[in-house]
Amino acid sequence: MSALAAVKKGIEKLIDRYGRDIYYLRMSLTERCNLKCIYCRSESEYCKAKTELTADQYSTILNGLVSLGIRKVRVTGGEPLVRKDLERIISDIASHEEIREICMTTNGIGLSERLPELKQAGLQRLNISMDTLDPDLYRKMTRGGDLAAVLKGIEMAQSLEMPVKINAVVVRGKNDQEAERLISLAKESAIDIRFIELMPMGVLGEDKNARVRNEEILRRHPELRPLPPAYPSQPSMDYTADGFKGKVGFISPVSHKFCNVCNRVRLTSDGKLRMCLANNYETDLMPHLQSGEELLQVMQAAMFNKPECHTFEEAFHTSRTMNQIGG
Question: Which long-range contacts (CB under 8 A, 24 or more apart) does 291-294 make?
């Protein structure tokens, strides 16, 4: 069977040239965000919506990606909640029976008001970005964010019995003293806390002194003991301790690569298929949207040729900020 015939029929898996099963799509809906986190973009940067894909365009691309083996979708941004058609997009994703998991990464601002409808549309899990439990520090790190609104969203998720993970980026001299408080949250509630190593992207990320290696946090908490991974491609190293209701995870893309099990591709909000966060190679899908066969061929070729590993340690530089690529 030819490659194109396999795509037309629909394939169960797309195995790339390094033997990885590529089934996880990170779908960025917008570059816009209602916050300006210090490690994401500059205070003066203005995010525009003019190049965002429409809901119909997302549906067209997703139809093809599902036929190529995508089985998990994480909706990201920017901040996906700024999209007024978010519920429709989630519903379109959920209409594919092949997709087993639908997640969203969000800062949680405005989440509490929309979460019941989002869950009804098909959303199953949440990752909420929250780098501190101190309201004043949160306001400084996000340049104006309201921590109370985030906590309200977390409470709503718990009331709806929706699994929640908290993502925290630890920055030396900014919030490194907050790790203990966040870990205590995993002890007191059924919420997983994940510390994400600051990546060398943007002005702040290029400062190596600002990066707190996850080993530093672990050394301060000898009570934490490692857990086996829940699935082979899990990016985090998880820990627990006696009396903990949640887990503590560490994602260390710089100091501890997990490229050999990376199963994800990224779709940016302007229609680029990106194979790796720290690799600038992208495939523009916009010229191919009107031809189903052509679109499938282009996407399949891009996914098959996914790079072997990221290049963070090789003085990686990109003109795109994190909100432009998708978290």
Answer: 292/64, 293/4, 293/8
What are the tens digits of pLDDT across the range 140-160? 999 999 999 999 999 999 999
Digit-coded pLDDT (tens) for 5-38: 444 445 568 999 999 999 999 999 999 999 999 8
The span from the first CA to the last CA of the chain, in angstroms, equals 37
Residues 6 or more apart whose CB falls under 8 angstroms from that of 82 comprise: 30, 32, 33, 34
* Mean pLDDT, range 81-98, rounded to an integer: 97
Neighbours of 6 (CB within 10 A): 16
110, 149 Cβ separation under 8 angstroms: yes
pTM reported for the whole predicted model = 0.91
Measure the CA–CA gap between 44 and 27, rounded to whole angstroms.
Answer: 25
What is the identity of the amino acid at 296? Answer: L
Q: Is the pLDDT of residue 213 over 70?
A: yes
State the amino acid at position 181 in one-letter form. R
Structure tokens at 259: 């490229």
Say if strands 192-196 and 101-106 run parallel, antiparallel, or are unpaired: unpaired
Q: Which two tokens stand for residue 204?
A: 């702040």
